[in-house]
Design brief:
The structure holds 2 protein chains of 2 kinds. By secondary structure, chain A is of the alpha/beta class. Chain A is built from 7 helices and 10 strands. Chain A folds into 2 domains: about 5-80 and about 160-275, P-loop containing nucleotide triphosphate hydrolases (Rossmann fold, 3-Layer(aba) Sandwich); about 85-155, no CATH class. By secondary structure, chain B is mostly helical. Chain B has helices at about 30-40, 45-65, 80-85, 90-100, 105-135, 140-155, 160-165, 170-195, 200-205, 210-250, 255-265, 270-295. Classes of the chains: A alpha/beta, B mainly alpha.
Chain lengths: ~280, ~300
């Protein structure tokens, strides 16, 4: 069976709109595979083009060179088999929580009544049963993220792309959400196979606790993967408890040894950029 | 806008400490002080104070203009103030006559309101359509940009005589004038609104499977409506301006026409009465827009709103 998501030699070069001569290569020659049902995290210093990679995988951004394959087929336009959880608030403020969950179903032509039933079921699953009639501004940050999660999962995508979805949450809410995502992923769609997940984060603990595999990116510009670690911790995991596991610490040290240098490099570049 | 609070807040509850506070208005006895604390401006009696301001303005107006009431201050005889500024009692009598006795204003008012509403609806519709089109089609926007700027900076009220020639002296020429005023307000707001759609919400809608039409219907349009509504108060006022100015420049019906007629005979009371009626109806239109806005914009957070569980 072919991989759920395969990026081959993907490079992304952006041209400055004001000065066409100036170019910025965010990622260069990235080859990355996510197997069906696999949970892969990408970690790296800030500004290493992690989000760029995710946008390429989503089909929101066409790579300058290289190709993207989704279940063996070349990707053209939006990736219809993927759901995307954004870092920033992505809910439509003019729709209620339920309206936001059902909007994707409506786009796909589901009858309103059917979409409503499904949407309500999903809201219940993410713990927002009684909050369907609230507008996003009436929900807390964590509740908005849950709504986003329900919105993404309601479409039952085969691939889930997550861009630091919990970075804006406080630590407790964050661990709760991480466990919930893991539970939903593990038990995802009872009869169906697990979903493939490409998870972007700058938090190494989060990456190790949740993933099957962690990919480390180099500092940008022209970032590329420089290390790959299989996470052989037992599942099901509790993200809070697993952090004290001896194997977890071992893996953490090994990955941090690779990541540390890149983080420092990235930081130095940012300082230089500011000085220039 | 608030009236200054008299003295300090220590006077509020403590009725016992009477000494040294005679500077406070009505501080003479406990009962008169309690009266004052009830009467002085606070959110509860705001309406009464607003009505009081209105009464005061009319009172002063009456005092200064009524012939023979006080010796003329600026004019040579006591009839001139009334001639130039009108007399409130006669103005109110005129309004009463229009609405209750001769009942001849309703036809004129209906014409003016019809022109206003038509100008408002057509101008808003066109502004919305063009705003969406140009915001979503950068090429067209690039080509038309200088012409839109030129049309917008043109003093468009001057088009009224041209519209009168094109569309005659009836309703159509006034509507056309109102439309030119309303269109640009709505157009620029929609244009801005569409361009300021959150890119994340847009990308999310695309990932959720929205095609171009669905993006327009479910993302661009709702996002633009909040901008449109912020412009509706201005544009309903301008639609009114278009209607009245159009009538004033040439017509056979409408409140603007009434004012023009009265001006021709130096009947300043009727002119003032017309202006007051127009103002009242402009306020009513504005209130109607606010009402619609509140029901349609329920999703927008209001300052200080708390969750009701």
């Amino acid at each position: 069976m072919s991989a759920a998501l395969q990026l081959d030699d993907v490079s992304c070069t952006f041209i400055s709109r004001d000065r066409p001569g100036q170019r910025y290569t965010a990622v260069r020659d990235v080859t990355l595979t996510v197997g069906a049902g696999e949970f892969v995290s990408v970690v790296g210093p800030t500004g290493c083009g992690k989000s760029t990679l995710l946008n390429v995988a989503a089909g929101l951004l066409a790579p300058s060179t290289g190709s993207v394959r989704v279940f063996g087929q070349a990707l053209d336009g939006i990736n219809r088999r993927a759901g995307y959880m954004f870092q920033a608030d992505s809910l439509m403020p003019w729709r209620t929580a339920l309206g936001n969950v059902t909007v994707g179903l409506e786009f796909r032509g589901l009858a309103p009544a059917e979409a409503r039933t499904l949407g309500e079921a999903w809201l219940k699953r993410v713990g927002l049963g009684g909050f369907g009639d609230r507008y996003p501004h009436q929900l807390s940050g964590g509740m908005r993220k849950r709504t986003s999660l329900a919105q993404t999962l309601a479409l039952d995508p085969d691939i889930i792309l997550m861009d630091e979805p919990f970075s804006a949450l406080d630590v407790q809410t964050r661990q709760l959400m991480e466990n919930e995502v893991l539970a939903l992923w593990a038990g995802g769609g009872e009869s169906r196979a697990r979903k493939a997940v490409l998870f972007i984060t700058h938090d190494l603990d989060e990456a190790i606790a949740m993933s099957d595999r962690v990919v480390v990116m180099s500092a940008g510009p022209a970032a590329r993967p420089i290390g790959e670690f299989a996470i052989d911790l037992e599942r099901p995991r509790d993200v809070a408890e697993v952090r004290t596991d001896a194997r977890f610490i071992q893996l953490h040290n090994a990955i941090w040894a690779v990541l540390r240098e890149e983080v420092l490099k990235g930081y130095a570049q940012q300082l230089q950029g500011k000085a220039a | 806008m608030r009236a200054p609070r008299p003295a300090s807040s220590t006077h509020d509850g403590s009725l016992a400490d009477g000494a040294g506070e005679s500077a406070l208005p009505g501080a003479g006895s406990p009962s008169s002080r309690a009266m004052w604390s009830r009467l002085r401006p606070n959110p509860g009696n705001l309406r009464w104070w607003q009505a009081g301001v209105l009464l005061a303005v009319f009172g002063v107006w009456h005092l200064l203009t009524a012939p023979g009431l006080i010796p003329p201050l600026l004019f040579e005889n006591d009839q001139q103030a009334a001639f130039f500024f009108g007399e409130p009692l006669k103005i109110l009598a005129r309004i009463w006559d229009w609405f209750a006795v001769s009942r001849d204003i309703y036809g004129h008012l209906a014409v003016t309101l019809l022109e206003t509403v038509l100008a408002f609806v057509i101008g808003t519709g066109l502004g919305l359509a063009f705003g969406l089109w140009l915001a979503l089609s950068p090429v067209a926007a690039g080509i038309l940009d200088p012409y839109i700027k030129a049309l917008n900076s043109m003093p468009r009220v001057i088009l009224a005589p041209i519209f009168a020639v094109w569309f005659g002296l009836g309703v159509a020429s006034k509507v056309a004038l109102g439309v030119t005023l309303v269109f640009f307000i709505v157009f620029f707001n929609v244009y801005q609104g569409v361009r300021e759609v959150s890119p994340v919400v847009l990308a999310n809608a695309r990932m959720l499977g929205a095609d171009r039409r669905q993006l327009l219907r479910h993302v661009y349009l709702p996002s633009a409506t909040s901008w449109v509504f912020s412009s509706l108060h201005t544009s309903v006022g301008l639609a009114f301006v278009g209607a009245v100015v159009g009538e004033y420049l040439g017509s056979a019906r409408g409140v603007g026409y009434l004012i023009l007629q009265a001006e021709g005979t130096f009947d300043i009371n009727t002119v003032m009465a017309g202006i007051l009626v127009l103002t009242a109806f402009a306020l009513l239109l504005d209130a109607a827009v606010s009402r619609i806005e509140r029901s349609l914009m329920r999703w927008q957070p209001r300052a200080g709103e708390t969750e009701r569980l």
